[in-house]
Amino acid sequence: MFCGSVGGASGRRFPVLVACGEAKLSSGAFSAAKVAGVCNVDARNASSALRRLRCMSVRTLGPPFRTYLRQEGAVTPRKEGPSGKQPREQKWGMAPLSAEKLSDSRRSGPRFKFNLKMSKCRKPPLGSGPETFSPDVLADIAELFAKNFSYGKPLNEWQLPEMSEIFTYDHMEFNALLDLKNSLNEVKNLLSDKKLDEWHEHTAFTNKAGKIISHVRKSVNAELCTQAWCKFHEILCSFPLIPQEAFQNGKLNSLHLCEAPGAFIASLNHYLKSHRFPCEWTWVANTLNPYHEANDNLMMIMDDRLIANTLDWWYFGPDNTGDIMTLKYLTGLQNFTSTMDTIHLITADGSFDCQGNPGEQEALVSSLHYCEAVTALMTLGNGGSFVLKMFTLFEHCSINLMYLLNCSFDQVHVFKPATSKAGNSEVYVVCLHYKGREAINPLLSKMVLNFGSEMTRKALFPHHVIPESFLKKHEECCAFFHKYQLQTISENIRLFECMGKEEQTKLNNLRDCAVQHFMQKFQLKPLSRNNWLVKKSNIGCSTNTKWFGQRNRYFRTYNERKVLETLSWKDKVAKGYFNSWAEEHVAYHPGQGSFLEGTTANLDCHLWHVLEGKKLPKVKCSPFCDGEILKALNEAIEKSLGGALNLDPNFRTKKQYYCSCHIFSEELIFSELFSLTRELQDEQLVEPSNQIKCLLVGFSALNETKIQLPLEIVQETAELTTFSCSLLHDGDPAYQQLFLNCLLQSLQRLHTGDAMVLPVLSCFTRFMAGLIYILHSCFRSITFSCPTSSEPLRTCAVLLCVGYQDLPNPVFQYLQNVNELLSVLLHSDAPQQVLQFVPMEVLLKGALLDFLWDLNAAIAKRHLHLIIQGEQEEITSSLELQN
Ligand SMILES: C[S@@+](CC[C@H](N)C(=O)[O-])C[C@H]1O[C@@H](n2cnc3c(N)ncnc32)[C@H](O)[C@@H]1O
């Protein structure tokens, strides 16, 4: 089995998994037989092998194989209870268990010993002993794994309405469903005063599936094993997601929307490889680009373990944001995937942090779900499967979406995996056998026209066109999941108040039982690291130990969060919400700046390319800085200084700043520079006989500083220090062009061993990080000094670069080209700017990443310190005036 890549017509590469070394298999029967280990099968005796297989107990085969047989019609889902009753685990196409059946099952005694008893040839579950559990515990866990509702539609009754009815009416909510929504929110409201960390700790313990993830991670060596990994494994093993066609042709293509950090992909990889699924697998993924400076941290999951190492297979669209909610993205994606002949499986797991307004989660994410569904319906191949995460399904827009999916697919199921936290609202809509784009084309064309975040203003379908029979089913579905969620939250609240020893023991028992159930039911098999998507990761922000900054720093409960939202900026400053940053800055001393040792790596710039994207309105996130610090700084700039650049000149002068922190004098900076140069000479890295000089970039005057190095000053670049910080930070194309221009001029003046002092605003963007990488490659060592100014938002850091080596000519030429492009874009009012010119894989490597984090943190904390100090002084003096 190997993981390789194929080139598309456009030169794109997609990851391809080839199982068992068989690139193409002529028939599904052949593939299936071979996978199941029926030996010496070839194409001629494949059918007889399949017959033999059909005689084997389906439970002894891995899930993909069972799925295949079911699809082939060879096996009907077998009744699993020894009593011959309805199986406890819900399979597709079956009605949910009714309350009576459940209580029946509780009384029914030890019938629900797991299937282990029935399948004698099966090995005991991985990592667990031959434990037995009481009937109550078994029934409880069986129920946990049975949260499935199937729509089971009536023949020909659910049809798409006339086109004239589309997007013509306002939304009208359904009273019965609104009642469900309100009753759920009433219970959720009881959580508002709970301390978030304590509540999370509590629900982590009461979560019956809470031990599964760590067990799976260890016992089957699962890559990127998160909750999402386990959830998707449950879905994969519970529904025939992979269409027959993929088995028959030995080729599987999948597309994963809103997928960062990528656990669904890792889960699918595990499933295919560990069960030796006989096909080439190609995948493509979408998500909000975690490296795009204008994307909001709150909307993303900042874990790039997979993304950083598989960047070629993530499509971020023409504007590089990865935002699926634009029409341009959809068009670009269709183009990007055009070399895949058909897409068999699409997953869409989009969501974002709705903690600010949890009661309206469904409405808040409805536009995102619409875009995911339209994208899927536009790209999925006939007969394909679609898995869409949704939350509660109470609102008119969700009803419409569910109706659309029911009209577009042969089967629709709503499934809540056991490993999805029982107290949250998320469910997965599993749609099987797509009828094809042609079947719904006129509607899709209209839906695409309404693409964007505003599309849900008018209702997709009016009330009167949705059949009663559908509404009835849908209401049943909502009530089914509502009941479980309500029960879980109420039980969690009860246990939060008081949980006795006995209850703790019972919960522990349930959790152990859930692990066994999971392992047996889904027959997980180990996978060697060799078969992982990322065998060895050494790049990415996630490798940076400082990456996982503390979230929710300022509040502990939901109510506290709400109070914080109502506070004005001044109130927050007065209450000391930002003091920790200022304190950290006061503790910062000269000589603390980190070092970046020169690299011996060759600059392979012939493999690089320039990436352009939409002009940045603001820099909201950065892979090179702690998200919390950047967020606090942006708030400070916005609220205290009105965004800095738009500032009325009078506004700024009225503020007086007195800096209580260290200002590094020029003398201090030069003495550091000198000692660094001496060190290099001592280590004989630089010839002592060389007349070393120091180039000062952008310094206009030197206040009689005594230094021990001959100086050369690049006067014409003095503007560099006059640039002030704004919400755009170093993302301002004018600043970037000036900086690059200075750099190119300066580097031409340097000789081997020389030093350079270069002022820098910040390095939040990929563009600036690219330039630091260039410096990293052509100097022996770089460090920084910060602050150098007592005025807030003025350029406040300098890079001290020592031991100039060389800048290879091709790199110089490349940078010249970038510079020319910047100049053209700047002078043409173009809507785009250069975002990146050094590949992300290079910028995300250890030492450089650490250096940039330290540099940016020092700069941001210093800005914050000065702004907050100024604000606090103003508050104090106005209080004094009042008294
Ligand atoms: C729950 S996570 C997905 C987890 C993923 N399935 C996994 O297995 O690791 C939700 C993702 O939706 C993404 N998302 C939210 N809004 C989006 C948008 N407009 N476009 C693309 N992705 C979006 C978020 O960035 C986040 O990564």
Automatic annotation (TrEMBL):
- A Gene Ontology molecular-function term? methyltransferase cap2 activity
Q: Which Pfam families match?
A: FtsJ
Q: Where is the Adrift-type SAM-dependent 2'-O-MTase domain?
A: 223-436
| Coiled-coil stretches noted in the UniProt entry, renumbered to this chain | none
Annotated S-adenosyl-L-methionine binding lies at G262, W281, D349
* Function in brief: S-adenosyl-L-methionine-dependent methyltransferase that mediates mRNA cap2 2'-O-ribose methylation to the 5'-cap structure of mRNAs. Methylates the ribose of the second nucleotide of a m(7)GpppG-capped mRNA and small nuclear RNA (snRNA) (cap0) to produce m(7)GpppRmpNm (cap2). Recognizes a guanosine cap on RNA independently of its N(7) methylation status. Display cap2 methylation on both cap0 and cap1. Displays a preference for cap1 RNAs.
Name recorded for this polypeptide: Cap-specific mRNA (nucleoside-2'-O-)-methyltransferase 2
Organism expressing this protein natively: Galemys pyrenaicus (Iberian desman)
